[in-house]
Amino acid sequence: MAMLSDTIYALSSGAPPSGVSVVRISGPLTRDILVKLVGSVPAARHASYRTIRTRNNHPIDSGLVMFFPAPNSFTGEDVAELQIHGSRAVLAALFHALGDIPGVRMAVEGEFSRRAFENGKLDLVEVEGLADLIGAETEMQRRLAVEQSAGGLSAIYDSWAERLTRARALIEAELDFPDEDDVPGSVSDVVWADMAKLRSDIADHLAAALAGEIIRDGFKVVIAGAPNAGKSSLLNALARRDVAIVTEIAGTTRDVLQVDLDIDGYLIKLYDTAGLREADDKVEMEGVRRARIALRDADLVLLLVDMTKPLIPDDLEQSSSHVTVGTKKDLTEVTSGRYDLQISTATGDGLPELRQLIGDIVERRFAGLSMAIPSRQRHKDSLAKCLAAVDAAISRPDVNLELRTEQLRVAAEYLGRITGRVDVEQLLGVIFSEFCIGK
Predict the structure, then answer these.
(1) What are the pLDDT digits (tens) for 127-139?
(2) Is residue 43 domain-shared with residue 18, that is, in the same domain?
(3) Per-residue 3-state assignment (H helix, E strand, C coil) for the chain
(4) pTM
(5) Structural domain for 408, as ranges
(6) Of 87, 102, 121, which residue is a domain's last?
(7) Do residue 220 and residue 356 come from a single domain?
């Protein structure tokens, strides 16, 4: 396969200009490239200060050169890293020199990580965790990504796969050698008891998938209420910038606006919606429709009520999934009412408390939760199918034992699809396309 036989290179650090740029090289010609560029191959895993030259012996730059021989490298191949000055001109000259070498080419998205997967250095969960770690913006996203990229989640799935394999082996031994002394008789009771425990473990693990998705993709907080309740003003105040247009005209907000916040290490996706009312204008009607969709998908609703003219839309009065926030506190002396919090976006009164309230709600949702939890839809899908197969094997004791054992094999296969232990070729292009070029 040409993709794996080529030697590849790419910028693995941030875009130039920068103080230092890191260029990574991987493949069978890595040693030859080092000889051409710096005169010799440096000692393994030691930084060596060298002058990098073109094939005509013209200096490109001076910097640190490191060599990682196979298989003890990120990709499992011979790998080199060049730490040079991060100017566009220096990088262009180096890439031109590398591109002139036959069999050497620029890497595509995720190709270094894909080679690590192909060479058994990482499994798919670890690869996805690495991608999430690179893209992490909050502390909880970082923790979740570190757990997955370090193999914590894979270890759980591998242990479950081993239990399934052992169960199949014991049942098949009893079927094939019922009279042999070294094969324990009636192992089925022990096996199915363990499989019942495994079913419970998988179900509990799958139940935490929603939390993993929220940590990775964001906790959805929707600001809702009647027109002119102060929704857009609150969005701007929490975002600390002008995101939404604010006027005294009811119905100004016509679409769902969204900003990302970092509250106590969690990614909070904050949505501003159109005021909920019966509208005659077609554009506003569409905005209200979209607002109701956002409310349906929300993890938390901030129901804003203008305390100078209290009004709660009919479809939110009976809802128990919201926090009621009284607004325009600076314009009224009447602060009575069933409000969880009272704020003024004009003076900032109550805004720190509102941020704290959101943070406390999210924290309670995830209190005591392990970070070894699924966070992607494909994980959930395979786990659900694995659980269904285990349940089918356990819940039908009247079915032929060979057929029940086959269900255990199917369950193990779905676990293997998560980590890449079985054929997942169709998934690889999608997964690795999420990476930047130098990773």
Answers:
(1) 999 999 999 999 9
(2) yes
(3) CHHHHCEEEEECCCCCCEEEEEEEEECCCHHHHHHHHHCCCCCECCCEEEEEECCCCCEEEEEEEEEECCCCCCCCCCEEEEEEEECHHHHHHHHHHHHCCCCEEECCCCHHHHHHHHCCCCCHHHHHHHHHHHHCCCHHHHHHHHHHHCCHHHHHHHHHHHHHHHHHHHHHHHHHCCCCCCCCCCCHHHHHHHHHHHHHHHHHHHHCHHHHHHHHHCEEEEEEECCCCCHHHHHHHHHCCCCCCCCCCCCCCCCCEEEEEEECCEEEEEEECCCCCCCCCHHHHHHHHHHHHHHHCCCEEEEEEECCCCCCCHHHHCCCCEEEEEECHHHCCCCCCCCCEECCCCCCCCHHHHHHHHHHHHHHHHCCCCCCCCCCHHHHHHHHHHHHHHHHHHHCCCCCHHHHHHHHHHHHHHHHHHHCCCCCHHHHHHHHCCCCCCC
(4) 0.81
(5) 127-208+374-420
(6) 121
(7) yes
